[in-house]
Design a protein that fits this description.
Keywords: Hydrolase, Metal-binding, Metalloprotease, Protease, Zinc. The chain is α+β, with helices and mostly antiparallel strands. It contains 9 helices and 7 strands; from the N terminus they run E-E-H-H-H-H-H-H-H-E-E-H-E-H-E-E. 46% of the residues lie in helices and 18% in strands. The strands form 2 sheets. A 5-stranded mixed sheet has the order 4-3-5-6-7, sandwiched between helices. It has a two-stranded antiparallel sheet with strand order 1-2. The protein is elongated and about 70 Å long.
C-alpha cells in the first residue's frame, strides 16, 4: 500500500514506500563496492528483495541472521527451519535455497574445470563451500585418476548431527567402477569443531587397507568445520 502525500495544489498522490530508496541504495553499494562492503543481514536483504517486493525486509533479514548466525548459515539452513521464521514465505525460502545451490554449483565448477587437483587450497575451498554449513553430517568422496584429475565427486552418505553411516567396501567398489586411482575423503562436523574423532581415524584406516590391494591411494581425509578444517594426513593419522 502506497502512502498518500499532499501536493501544493491540495491534491493527493501516492508516494513510494520509504524502503524503495533503501533497496536501490543497497543494490548500488553492492555493485560498486562488492559483497565485502555489506553486512551479513544486508546480503540477506538483497536475496529477499525479489521474493518480497512490497515490504521492508530489513527486520526479517536481521531476524534470520540472529537466528542462524551468519549469511552462510541462513542460506544453508534446512527449509523446514527457515519456515519457522515468521513472515518468511515459500517464495523467500526458495530464493535462499537457490542461493545455496548457486554457491555449490560455482564451487563444483571451479574444481571441475581445472581437472587436475594440484592445489590443496582448491580442494579445501570446494569442500568448505559444499558442506561446512550443513546441519547434518555428510560424507563425500572425490575420485581421481592417475594425474589427480577429478573423475567424480559423489555424496555417499548423509546422517545425523554427529554420525554418517559409511561402508568402506562400497567406497572401494565405487572407485573400481570409476577406474579411480586415488581418493580424497571429506566429511563435515555440524558442531563446527573439525577435530577428527576416533571413529573418523578408524574409518579412514579401514578404507586405506581395503583400497591398498587394488592400488587405490587415499590421499587424505578432510574434516570440515564451519571456520576451519583438519587433514588426517597433515595430522599424521594416516
Amino acid at each position: 500500500m502506497k502512502a498518500k502525500t499532499q501536493t501544493p495544489d491540495g491534491m493527493q498522490e501516492a508516494a513510494e514506500p520509504h524502503f524503495h530508496g533503501h533497496r536501490q541504495r543497497l543494490r548500488d553499494r553492492f555493485m560498486e563496492a562488492g559483497a565485502g562492503a555489506l553486512s551479513d543481514y544486508e546480503l540477506v536483504e538483497l536475496v529477499l528483495f525479489r521474493a518480497i517486493p512490497r515490504r521492508d525486509v530489513k527486520p526479517l533479514a536481521k531476524a534470520l541472521v540472529a537466528r542462524f548466525g551468519s549469511f552462510a548459515e541462513v542460506v544453508a539452513a534446512r527449509p523446514e527451519r527457515l519456515r519457522e521464521i515468521e513472515g518468511l514465505g515459500e517464495a523467500a525460502v526458495c530464493e535462499l535455497k537457490l542461493m545455496e545451490a548457486a554457491g555449490r554449483r560455482l564451487a563444483r565448477g571451479e574444481v571441475g574445470k581445472r581437472r587436475a587437483l594440484s592445489s590443496f587450497i582448491e580442494v579445501i575451498d570446494y569442500c568448505h563451500a559444499s558442506m561446512a554449513y550443513a546441519e547434518r553430517e555428510e560424507f563425500r568422496v572425490l575420485f581421481l585418476d592417475k594425474r589427480n584429475g577429478l573423475i567424480a565427486d559423489e555424496l555417499l552418505g548423509v546422517g545425523t548431527v554427529d554420525h554418517t553411516p559409511v561402508y568402506p567396501r562400497e567406497i572401494v567398489r565405487r572407485a573400481l567402477e570409476l577406474s579411480a586411482s586415488a581418493l580424497i575423503l571429506a566429511h563435515n562436523h555440524p558442531s563446527g569443531d573439525p577435530t577428527p574423532s576416533t571413529a573418523d581415524v578408524r574409518l579412514t584406516r579401514d578404507i586405506v587397507e581395503i583400497a591398498k590391494p587394488f592400488n587405490i591411494a587415499v590421499h587424505d581425509h578432510l574434516v570440515i568445520g564451519r571456520h576451519g578444517h583438519a587433514s588426517l594426513k597433515g595430522l599424521k593419522m594416516i
